[in-house]
Amino acid sequence: MISRKTILSIFITVLAINVLGLGAFVGVFRTLQKTLPALEAIERYTPPLVTYVYDGNGEVIAEFYDEMRIPVKLEDVPSIVKKTTIAVEDRKFYSHWGINPFAIGRAFVTNILARKRVQGGSTITQQLARSMFLSLERTYIRKLKELILTISIEHTYSKDEILEMYLNEIYYGNGCYGIESASRRFFGKSIRDITLSESALLVGLPRSPFYYDPFKYPENALQRRAVVLEIIKERGIVDAIEIERLKNSPLGVGTGYDKYSKVGPYTIEEIRRQVGEKFGSDMFYHGGAFIYTYIDKKMQEIADEVVIDQIKKLEEIYKIESDSSNPLQVALFAMDPRTGRIKAIVGGRDFRLSQFNRATQAYRQPGSAFKPFLYTAAVDKGYPPTYKLLDQPIVIEVQGTIYSPSNYDDTFRGSICLRDAIAFSRNLASVRLILDISPETAVKYARMMGIKTKLIPVISLALGSNSVTLQEMVTGYATIANGGYRVSPYLIEKIVNQQGDVLYEARPYEERVLKEETAYIMTSLLESVADYGTGAGMRRMGFLRPAAGKTGTTDEWKDAWFIGFTPELICGVWLGYDTPDTIMKGGTGAVLALPIWTEFMKRALSDKPVSNFIMPSGVVKRTVCKESGLLPIEGCKELIEEVFIRGTEPKTTCDIHSSKKEFDFRRLDAE
Length: 671
Fold this sequence. Notes:
Elements: H1 4-35, H2 39-44, E1 51-54, E2 60-64, E3 68-69, H3 79-89, H4 101-114, H5 124-133, H6 140-156, H7 159-169, E4 171-173, E5 176-177, H8 179-187, H9 196-204, H10 218-234, H11 240-247, H12 265-279, H13 281-286, E6 290-293, H14 297-317, E7 328-335, E8 342-346, H15 371-380, E9 388-391, E10 396-398, E11 401-403, E12 414-417, H16 418-423, H17 427-437, H18 439-449, H19 470-481, E13 485-487, E14 492-496, E15 502-505, E16 510-512, H20 516-531, H21 537-540, E17 548-553, E18 559-565, E19 570-577, H22 589-604, E20 619-625, E21 639-645, H23 665-670
Parallel strand pairs: 1-6, 3-5
Antiparallel strand pairs: 1-2, 4-5, 6-14, 7-8, 7-19, 9-12, 10-11, 13-16, 14-15, 17-18, 18-19, 20-21
Helix pairs in contact: 3-9, 5-6, 5-7, 9-10, 10-11, 14-22, 15-17, 15-18, 15-20, 18-19
């Protein structure tokens, strides 16, 4: 017989073991609790959200995220989705305290009998705790942490709040976190519009998102959906006949592609870069912001298509061959010259192969495309379009070095007026013009009009010797198109957070830097480029709207440019190799860049009414002798109508032709 003393000893020993065990458990519990988020952190928990980018018409053109998640409120989730989720994942959800011992035991026995894991015992709250704060490692420590967090979540939130968080947090596969993003990815519609069979498929995915992926493994997905449908039939949620009918229905999933991935990748990357500079990448990928831009989706799509189609066409027509490591590149930059709102950007021929944005980041010599800055300076200083320049050979000694420029076609036209000098892009006449007004003055006007790159005041600047970006060039030309007001290009209108707070709002910049009359005369001169000069190919290609612009070509045909505008849209195009090399002999801006510009402008403005450049009151028209630029007399052979800034129009008659009799304008009117 066991003595009382022995029984007492055993009791004390067992008690001591239990006390020590409890103490150890409490110690471990407290230690683990310190490594977990505090209650306040759980209350403040905000999952990473999707950032949306909108075009100028309010249409989504891009999404950025680390986790594709679109929040949805529980009241917006159909009842069948909620009931199915609870039936499949945690049927005692509304009655347990976060842990369901019976479910754990049932799963343990089932898995032992099946000799594999066929059933889980985790509650919805446990799964939520794991997804929010824990790794996927399978250890006892992680399980204890999960238990602690589960209890904390149950004490912090109501059951409905927990279910809503679960439906927004859990991974459904294909990069989708939360049931709303999964519904849109797999079925192309909101969870609000989901059907019973679609609901069954979605609810079944969290068990194994990869294995049941309906895009990759449709047979597995069908089997899983059938299991879910059987569960809701057993629970009496849906009529058995309906369930049997649905088991044999197709999955009905879409294609699963990213519908925004092809819309202006260089533009989207530029937006990402600008937002990252202002707020950091964390806000961009996690913050769930709404970024509103002025991008015109239609124009952007046109730009993307035209650039690829036209460059391939040019390569085929002119047999242009290039190394795959240094392919012929292209850039396009389009904006509204009146506001600076950027409408489309193409930074290269293939974003997948090169993310370098040649429209905003590449510095290249513009060649004759730089001449409008020089001619603007001359016009602003009183040079009329009829001012005569010599298009003849010239040799200049500059600091002991001989500079001997030439025309691109190695011909000379002798005396030529300002209008024709820029229309036909005569280099020698332009060199004489920069000698007249000084390189420093040309630099001053270029900077006033929007060129930010440091410019070297040398004579060769007249022919575009200084490297600049396409964006700068378009900005400078926009000053002419906008009546002398310089604007700053901008992509982003505003950025709004999830709470509706405006984090950033653009402040459009506008400053008058040229007289309105100067800008109009320059527009008129550049219209001559388009109508009968080096840019006249646009007319032969069917672009008949009022337009102005300038071609540009660099030495050895390494760069081809065209920048042109209508009253409502300005666009610049550049072609060349990243490592500068001859594109092709005769590869001028008119041959290579102008066709791309023309096709883009034709399509971009196809649904817009035709508008004209408005002549300001400070500009007057006069009929003059083409050869002398003076008022005509009887012997003048060719008369033209020319525009002048008021006060610079000719006051004297032609001094070239023999007759001294002034021309009878009444006879001209009668004819």
